[in-house]
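The protein record minuted underneath.
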Amino acid sequence: MTTAAQNPHQWDDAKSRDWPTEFKEVEISSSADEEIQKAYLYSSQSQIPKPLIVSLHTWSGDYQQKDPLAKEILARDWNYIHPDFRGPNNTPQSTGSELAINDIEDAINYALKNTNSDPEDVHIIGVSGGGFATLAAFLNVEYPVKSFSAWAPISDLEAWYWESVGRKQKYAGDILKAVSIDSVFNKAEALRRSPLSQDFPVKLRKDAELYIYEGVHDGYTGSVPVTHSINMYNRLVGELKYGVSNLDTIMQMAAKDSDLVARKEIIDLVTKRYNPQFEKNVPLFDREVYLHRDYQNIHLTIFDGGHEQLPQALGLIPYKKNTFLDFNILTLGDSNGEIQWGWVNQLRKMMPESEIVNISRSGRTIGFDNLGRTELNALSHINEFMDQAREQMGNQKYDFVIICLGTNDTKKVFAGRQNEVVVNFEKLFWRIKKHSMVKQSNPRLIFVTPPPMRTTNILDKYKGGNERLNKLIPQFKSVAGRKGFQVIDVYHPLLGVLDYYAMDGIHMAAEGQQIVASYIVDYLKKY
């Protein structure tokens, strides 16, 4: 059972306000009352339209609250806005009010006007109080947002008020300030602001995906019981499937409908905080999934965790990946290029019209006989590899040759031979350029830097590898440029996110490999 998930989290620190310099503070005039809403904005440096992420602060936070998603926004180079929407949830103007919802919509429109965001690729995400706001946005924002990701959300303010009273948590006082003017709890106003009780605009959201994620231990180790997520899922699915919005009626149907979550399943999860049959579900990265449901565009995942948003949350967002690029491409890499979920197969998914010949192999080096196997030495066999690649393409020419090597040359066993790596690198690239296939096809040549490696908690054979690789990267880029290769640097962007995408410190999960592939696709789109 995961215990790390139950520790305090960066995203829940409302006092942390240290933002990277790439994020700029902006001011947005409210279209409702002309109040100035502040936000942090990041504009992609790409010339190609990118997704827009609208990240909503937590219950007690505001726009200044540092967002752990920021480092991955930089890694992916996506557009981003972190709006204030009336600040902490302890005033009538905040806490799911019409003004707060309007502020979120104003933030979307501002970001669309001031970045290169794809207007059809807008995504809202939030955790805890931000999850509450995400659900409220799903039901009330008029813009055709593509997806909503609500992590550990509050869906019922009335229930959460009494739950907070019972737990002696400050949130009860916050709700009281938001929904009452006479210090007496206003049940009707709490329900009016609760996503669970609001109208579901089915037609408006028919093309939008709603993802609800919740850790099974929340309510015990955290402040929001798992029932908030399950009830919200049941209520929306009940309306989609039966046209019924009353939760009591829906729960009667749930006893015989596997698309819904039955009362017994809820009790089992709340009491056991475990599902003995969890292996039937696909895990959520390194987390066991105890309950998963999908119905049309509504999705629910209850995982082994607490009151949290997983650091890989952006990797779960259904952004636009596929392109209509039609190229013939040769790829040469190591295990990150060969594995089933690696960057080459991510390229294939993103470029289904293209023909990609992959000669990557696990353990391949630039110029060493790795594991005592000469066939893993690219320098020794490059002419043979290129001949095979030409045969596989037949009479057609390659448009691009993409090389991503260097990780295995920094292994501990080669630590004393690092002065040979750049020499081998230069020889390899010279031989590639001189090969008859390259001369005949005249493809564009691309070098993708190796991704970083974890510096701790890594297999002994890779210890010190990232430090060695860090020294080699500038030399690789210099040599590749001199040899006429375009350089795509994924090493530096991935430094901030590799640790939670690569469980072994070397091989990222598919969602991390997509970052590598997207950098390549962005380059190819120029042609």
